[in-house]
Structures are given as C-alpha cells and as structure tokens.
Write a structure and sequence with these properties.
The structure is a single chain. Helices cover 57% and strands 17% of the residues. The protein is α+β, with helices and mostly antiparallel strands and 735 residues long. The strands form four sheets. Strands 5, 6, 7, 8, 9, 10 and 11 form a seven-stranded antiparallel sheet that branches. Strand 5 (266-272) and strand 6 form a beta hairpin.
C-alpha cells in the first residue's frame, strides 16, 4: 500500500503542482477525484500555500475512510518550476492517507489462502499416518481387546498369543503383561478359596462371642443413660452461663439449675476484689432469702470462703460447729443450722478469681454425684464470671477511649481549621486584588454605559424621523450582532483594511472610519445587508447611534462577567472557610474542592504559572470535603512555593480500580533524597524560622489516612515533585 501511495504521488506531483501554480481549480479537482478513486487511497489532502495569502485546503476522501495509525500515509511538498532554469517554488503540500479497510481486506484474503492450504496438507498427512498406525498397531490392539473381553475365571489358564514378529516393542510388553496378569489372578483365586474356608470356621465362633458381649453392653448402656442425661443438663447449664455477661444473672442462673439437681439450702458466690486483699460476696441466698452485698478479708480466721481461696482447694465440711463459726451476711437470719457445706475455688487460666459454695441443713447431703456436678459447673461459672468481669472492664475502657477519640477529633479539626485560616490569611491580599479588578471593570463599564446612553438618547429621535420601515429593521439588526471571540489589534486592523477597500469600491464616504465602526459592531461579514444604511445621507448619524447602543450592550455584558467573577471568588472563600462540626461524611465531587482552592490561589497562579487541568468524569466519593480542601491547599501551596510562583502546575483527577486518584505536580526545585522520607513527619520543615510550622504535610497524611487512603510522592531535585493521592470508594467512613 505504501508503494501504491508513492506511485500515486509521483504520477500526480507535477500535474498537481502545475494546476496549483496556474490556479486551475477545475484541473486540480479532476486530478484529485481521479486519484481518490484508487482503492488503496482513503483520503487526499492538498494545502495550497501561495505567498502573501491564506492557506487553502482541498480534501477528498472515501465515505468509509477513518483515520488510522495502521494504514500508511505519505506527505509530499509540491513545488513548481515556472520556466527552465528557474528556481523551484513551493506551492503546497500533498498528503495521502491509506485506507485501513482495504489493508484489512487484502490481509484477510492472504490469511484465508494460507489457512486453506495448510488444512489440506494437514488432512493428507493425518490420513497417511492413520493408515500406517492401523496396519502396525490397531489390528493387534483389537486382538488383545477381544482376548480380554472373553477372559473369565474358567479360561485364565489360556495365554494370549500374537501372530507377529518376535521383536521387543510396546505391544510385546503388553502381551507379556496380560499373560502375567492372568497367571497372578489364577493364583489369587486359588488362595481366596482357602481363606474363605478358614473364615467360615471363625465366623461361627465369633457369633457365640457376640451374643455374650451384647448382654454385657445392654447392662452398661442402662447405667450410662442416667449419666448421659446428667451430662446433657451440665452442658445446657454451661451454655446458658457463658452466654451471659452480667454477674448477678450468672449467679441466679447457676442457683436455679443447682437447686433442681441437688438438695441445697444455701448458695453463694464471692469474687476477689481488685485490690487483692478481700472477697466481695456478690450473691448469697439462704432458704429463699437474698443477702445484701458484703465482703470478707482474705485473712479472716473463721471464714470458710477465705480458707478455700487461700488454700486453693475444695472443702467438704460436715462439722456443724465449724460451719456456725463462719460469718453470716447481713440480712440473713438462720432458723435451722447448716450441717453440710462444700466450697470450691473458681479458677481461670490458673488464676483464682473467687469461691463458689453450697450448703444444706441435712447431714451428708452431698455425695459423689453432687460433687461431680458442682465441679463441672464451677468451671463454667469461673469462665462466665471472668468474661463478665472482662466485659465490664472493656466497656469502661471503651467509654474512656471514645471520650479520648472525641477529644482528639475535636483537636485535629481545630488544628486543620487553624491551618486553613492561616493559609486563607496569606491569600487575603491576592483575593482582594482579584475582587478589585472586576469591581474596576464594573465601574469603568458603568461610566461607558452612561456616556453611550446619553449619546444614543440624543440621536434616536432624529434617527427615526428620516428612516423608513425597512431601514429601521436594518438598524435594529445592526446593533444585535453577537460578539465574536476577542480579536487582537493586528487582526482588527487587517479586517478594517480589507473592509475599507470594499467600502471604497462601493463609493462609501469616509470608508476607513466606516469600516472601523462596522468591525466594532461585528457586522463586517454582512456588508451587503447594510449598504442601504451606509449609502443613506445620514449614514454618519446612523453609525454613531448604532455604535453607542452596541457599546451599552457590550458594557452590560462586561458588568455581568465581572459580577460572576466576584461571585465565584466569594463562593470559593465561603466553601474554603466552612467548618464541618457534625463530623459526617457526605458524597462530593473532588473537582469541586480542587476548583475552590484553585480559585483562592487565582492571583498567584495567573501571574507566571501555567495551570494544566486534566479532569476525568468520575463518580462522587464519600468523604469529608472540608478536610480534603485542606489537603489540596497544602499541596498546591507547597507546589507554588517550590516553583517560586513561576512554572507549570498540573492537577489531574482519574480513577484507578476502586480508588479515586488525584495527582498534583510541579516543575519546581524538587525534594532531596535524604529528606524525602521525613517530609510527612510532624514539625519537620525546610523553610526558614517563622515561615513554616511543619504541620502541613503531617495534616495531609492524617486526613488521607482518615479516608483510608494513601499518598505517594515522586521527586527529583531540579525537575519537580509529584504527589499522588488514592482515596478508596467506601460505603462509610468512621469519624
């Protein structure tokens, strides 16, 4: 295709150059139309570049052509030699683009031809190989398969014999294996018959033994049934105890279950005090009466609970006198003496935490069954009470932590707000200048409107006296032309010069002055429409009045633009200084916050900073917008300082996976490698004393961490720095 394009260029180069030189547009279009019909050509562009004239472009392209990076293209400079030995003069450029559709069409044809050829060759080769394989292998494999299909225990003694040469190959090994397998199976079946005879003899003996053991197991199962029911009840007790985190509820639950399992009349639980010198009696009930909470010192001489705790052993006491010497909790009045007591320490992770006790008015009320129940439930009770104690401590600690976190959040918010206000204070002078500039524009435009209005009101009555209906409509249309993009002084002079010549040709008086007014009114491209007004005897009055009215409209637009500029700055200041006291994350667009900060820094940026924005349209993110504004402020402020307010500032927004990504880069002084790891440390700064607090990047890092994001920095001394912030899309952000 590239060769075809080169050939086309060589064929048409001279004829096109000649047609351009001779300004023969018909010949030029004829040649281009002919060339564009060649299948390889997608588009032909000719740019005519005559001296002292604007460039003229001719384009011919196929209807299906699209610009491509795959199809080749050719660019050729067109020059022409007006006469022999004359200097070749450049008259234009020829650009030919190949058609990617044709390229792919040719490629598909070649690929189909290659694939068909390869398929035919592969099929022929596969058929030949299958023929050889069938004669050498398949016939013998079928014979082996037939032999194996007819194999049975009765004919295991008949070996497999193959009618083929005796060479040693895989088939010979397979035949030998089959014969060996038959021989092994024959020996196995003979041995199996012997084993079955011995097994029948042992089966009869085993049946007698099973009958004897069945009778023994029936008696044992009957005894275990009672124990299993007790174990089930203990398991239920353990589950119910360990699901509660309240000391009093645990004690009540244990008492209720023990009362159903054994004959007890008093029950108590005592826990070791935090000071470690006493036992707090958290629950005591005797004959249905509940005692008030009390305590007993660990060195009490007659307290049975203190004795069991000190000696860390189970006490089973049947001495009525010894039981009566023990201290009685307040609120309990014994009617009948206790004659049996059992006390057991509560131990968790080899640490004593308290004592569990049961008592009865009966002598020897607690036998081995009751003691086993008490021992099992004591383990569950110790775990449940330890969990309840830990939970209470955790709740207290959580409350303290929550208060501390709230204090910390308030302090951080105040610190961020202080930094924000400090940055805002540094920008006040620039913001004031930004506001004064549009205010000055409003003031100047207002004066211009007053002067123009006075002039227009003076001329309008005279004007409409001598203008007929058609001229009045032309006059109204003349003052309604919309402003074009702002023209440079040179462009305005060129337009005025060209229009002056047209007016002079139309015999308009004072064409230069009239052309200037028409250009100011943006009516220079509609000369034919307004010739009746320009040829009117009062054309000067008409143009002056139209210019005054248009000036009023233009200055009104200037005032609106200036007011919008001031409004934008005021809105940015309000958004920047806002303080979110509720601490609730909301959905926000990152672009809004960045634009707010850039508006605040507009005065510093517009001087010698080239600002490049590259914003992708990404979804809003759940965040704290006011705090993120502080991040953008610190990073943009640092970038401007690093460039000494001269350079290129680039701000980008995009999405990377589940993260929203913001990139802020500059071409300033960069960060030295030996301090790069310290820039996020609190109070670290490279600025002179009194210029920086060292808190900016530390606050940036904390705010980003609060959003569960991360910040990365790349920097090279003398080249600049790039800060990349990743903010994940989360369902919720905790304050």
């Amino acid at each position: 295709m590239r060769a075809e394009l080169n050939l086309i260029a060589q064929v048409y180069q001279f004829t096109l150059s000649k047609a351009i030189w001779e300004m023969d547009r018909d010949t030029l279009k004829t040649h281009l139309t002919s060339a564009s019909k060649i299948s390889a050509v997608g588009q032909i562009v000719i740019m005519i570049m005559p001296d002292q004239h604007a460039t003229e472009t001719f384009t011919f392209k196929q209807t299906t052509w699209k610009k491509s990076t795959i199809a080749p293209s050719l660019q050729l400079t067109l020059s022409y030699q007006a006469f022999p030995n004359a200097r070749h003069q450049q008259v234009g450029k020829l650009i030919i683009y190949g058609d990617e559709h044709v390229l792919w069409s040719r490629l598909r044809g070649e690929v189909v031809s290659i694939i068909v050829t390869q398929i035919i060759q592969s099929l022929l080769l596969a058929g030949f190989i299958m023929l050889l394989f069938n004669r050498s292998v398949t016939v013998h494999v079928q014979r082996i398969a037939h032999h194996l299909a007819q194999l049975s225990p009765e004919n295991l003694g008949h070996p497999l014999v193959m009618q083929r040469s005796t060479r040693q190959d895989e088939l010979s090994m397979l035949v030998a294996g089959v014969n060996h397998l038959q021989h092994s199976l024959l020996e196995y079946l003979q041995q199996k018959r012997l084993y079955e005879q011995e097994l029948a003899e042992h089966r009869d003996h085993l049946a007698d033994r099973v009958a004897e053991r069945t009778e023994e197991l029936f008696a044992a199962n009957k005894a275990l049934g009672s124990s299993a029911e007790t174990l089930r009840q203990l398991g239920d007790i353990g589950k119910e105890l360990t699901t509660s985190l309240n000391h009093h509820a645990i004690c009540q639950t244990l008492y209720r279950h023990l009362l159903a399992l054994m004959p007890l009349d008093a029950f108590s639980v005592a826990l070791l005090d935090e000071q470690g010198d006493r036992l707090n009696l958290i629950y005591y009930i005797e004959d249905g009466n509940v005692a008030c909470p009390s305590y007993v010192m660990l060195d009490h001489p007659s307290s049975l609970s203190a004795l069991a705790f000190r000696e860390e052993r189970e006490l089973v006491i049947a001495d009525e006198a010894l039981i009566e010497k023990a201290p009685i909790p307040e609120g309990i009045t014994p009617n009948t003496p206790m004659r049996t007591a059992v006390l057991r320490p509560l131990i968790v992770n080899n640490q004593r935490i308290g004592v569990l006790s049961i008592r009865s008015h009966n002598t020897n009320a607690f036998q081995e069954r009751e003691l086993d129940i008490l021992r099992s439930t004591a383990v569950y009770t110790a775990i449940a009470l330890a969990n309840a104690t830990a939970y209470a401590a955790t709740e207290a600690s959580r409350a303290q932590t929550a208060n501390a976190l709230e204090d910390l959040r308030q302090a951080q918010s105040q610190l961020i707000q202080s930094e924000k206000m400090a940055a805002l204070g540094q920008l006040i002078a620039g913001v004031a200048h930004e506001i004064n500039t549009p205010i000055g524009a409003v003031k100047s435009s207002g004066k211009n409107i007053a002067d123009a209005l006075s002039h227009a009101l003076e001329n309008l009555p005279k004007l409409f006296q001598f203008l007929d209906t058609n001229d009045q409509q032309r006059f109204m249309q003349l003052i309604k032309h919309k402003a074009e993009p702002l023209l440079s002084t040179r462009e305005e002079r060129n337009k005025t010069r060209a229009l002056s010549q047209q007016l002079a040709d139309a015999a308009i008086i004072n064409p230069r002055h009239t052309a200037g007014i028409l250009v100011q009114l943006h009516a220079d491209n509609h000369l034919a429409e307004y010739l009746p007004l320009l040829q009117h005897p009062e054309s000067s009055l008409i143009l002056d009045t139209a210019y005054s009215i248009a000036s009023i409209i233009n200055n009104t637009d200037n005032i609106n633009i200036a007011v919008e500029s001031v409004s934008k700055i005021i809105f940015a200041l309000k958004s920047f200084s806002r303080f979110n006291r509720e601490g609730v994350s909301i959905e926000a667009h990152l672009k809004d916050g960045l634009e707010t900060v850039l508006t605040i820094y507009q005065n510093q940026i517009k001087q010698n900073i080239e600002l490049i924005r590259n914003y992708q349209d990404i979804e809003p993110i759940l965040c704290f917008p006011d705090e993120l504004n502080q991040v953008w402020t610190n990073l943009i402020h640092n970038a401007l300082q690093a460039m000494q307010y001269k350079g290129v500032l680039k701000v980008e927004i995009s999405r990377s996976g589940n993260d929203a990504m913001v990139v802020i880069s500059d071409n300033g002084c960069g960060i030295a490698e030996n301090i790069r790891s310290k820039i996020f440390d609190v109070f670290f700064t490279t600025k002179s004393a009194g210029e920086g607090s060292g808190l900016g990047l530390d606050i940036v890092k904390k705010i980003i961490a609060k959003h569960h994001g991360r910040i990365e920095v790349q920097s090279e001394v003398g080249q600049g720095s790039t800060f990349t912030i990743y903010l994940p899309y989360l369902a919720n952000i905790a304050v």
